[in-house]
What we know:
By secondary structure, the chain is α/β, with parallel strands linked by helices. The chain folds into 3 domains: 62-248, P-loop containing nucleotide triphosphate hydrolases (Rossmann fold); 256-429, P-loop containing nucleotide triphosphate hydrolases (Rossmann fold), CATH 3.40.50.300; 436-509, Arc Repressor Mutant, subunit A. It has helices at 60-71, 78-86, 101-111, 127-140, 170-179, 199-217, 234-240, 268-282, 296-310, 331-334, 394-402, 418-422, 438-446, 463-475, 490-496, 502-509; strands at 7-14, 32-35, 90-95, 119-124, 149-153, 156-158, 165-169, 186-191, 224-229, 246-249, 255-261, 288-292, 319-325, 345-351, 364-369, 372-379, 384-391, 410-414, 479-482, 485-488. Strands 2-10-3-9-8-4-7-5-6 form a 9-stranded mixed beta sheet, with helices on both faces. The longest helix is centred in the middle third of the chain and has 19 residues, at 199-217. It is globular. The chain starts with 6 loop residues before the first strand and ends in a 7-residue tail after the last helix. This is RNA helicase.
Amino acid sequence: MSEQAGFQPVKRFRQGSGPPNRAGYCSPGRQVVMLPSAGGGGRGGGQRQQPPLAQPSASPYLEAVERQRRSLPIFQARAQLLTQLRNLDSAVLIGETGSGKTTQIPQYLYEVGISRQGIIAVTQPRRVAAISLATRVSDEKRTELGKLVGYTVRFDDVTSENTRIKFLTDGMLLREAISDSLLRKYSCVILDEAHERTIHTDVLFGVVKAAQKRRKELGKLPLKVIVMSATMDVDLFSQYFNGAPVLYLEGRQHPIQIFYTKQPQHDYLHAALVSVFQIHQEAPSSQDILVFLTGQEEIEAMSKTCRDIAKHLPDGSPSMLVLPLYASLPYAQQLRVFQGAPKGYRKVIISTNIAETSITITGIKYVVDTGMVKAKKYNPVSGLEVLAVQRVSKTQAWQRTGRAGREDSGICYRLYTEDEFEKFEKMTVPEIQRCNLASVMLQLLAMKVPNVLTFDFMSKPSPDHVQAAIAQLDLLGALEHKDDQLTLTPLGRKMAAFPLEPKFAKCSVQPSLPAG
């Protein structure tokens, strides 16, 4: 479909050869450990003799889950990986898409007893990822969700006193740190999808690093910290976590063919719609499509348009199951993207960047990348924060491309020219450097951080943004100045207990305060 759609094939690559995440991109002298894997293509190809499956009398579904687990590339690296992780306080692990790092490493650590003295926490930037991963791991451990394996997201806690592996959003772990800055209940914290650099994630880096250091100084149970991603600035993360060694794990390397447009696309929504239906008319119905748009409004509008057009396709055309995916979509509807389509139907998933890295969707053969994303931007002068549509970074573009090569060879249609791609920023600017910091300052003060102005951020926020955040909290009555130190007022402490923006938190607690 490439020529008639105005695309030109530029290159083929094997997943992992695009974004700069391999050991060769580390600075000279950085400690790098290359882990063995079964990353040679097919499932289980070239693997050594494996032990028999556990509990052979289990249901066919659970046996299939176990076989799939053992076919993951990380399975071959298990022994060497555990040898490294047991002996390290901190580690940076680069695991390519499809390697199995997020679901398997917590289980491996549990199986060798890391959780005997504390819970293994796995943080995720998004609630849908935390819930779906906990569900998957509980299936693999053959246990009811909420017992051995559980999750905690805002307004939903599915854990028990027996939970040893807990998936949770980074914001929820931050809230726990307000009441326990040492994170005493945890023996290991795995910071997953670290490259996303959300505002909560960046604060959590500093909180976990400080907890690890303080526990060591007090002679308490050491806190193991593992930072994971499919792609990141390896040197930055390793240096921040005290020169942590870098462990590199390859994933399945299925070839992906990339097509760029011949001309710039001034209407990326129309270009995406045309691309979807040209693929739909030509490709087998078993091959699903993933489209990246910027937000709920665009996604719902295109979903409706796709359904309307699909009703009028010629006889014999495959049926189309159009599924939107964005963060505020009810979880029950989000789950539909993980389910197989009925026979004769093709899934067309229209998503925000939530599908870039946080979740795994099987069956995707084609990716249509508009090259656009919505990102927060804050103006400290006006005090306004907006969601602006902008170009993705090169890292994000590679992540989107990689969605097409999870299980087999894939194709990515980039709705921009190669020249445009070369002008993209290499990495996404961290949220901490472009967002309103009022919530961050409120949380840090609630944790009794001695000096929020010198907090150990991985990437320092703008001084103007910090001062604007302090001024906003002062205006809300959340701060008081004592001996040249910032502390929270009684109102500020109550505001910090709410997982809301400070101005909304004040609206929630103000009525409970006595008059006068």
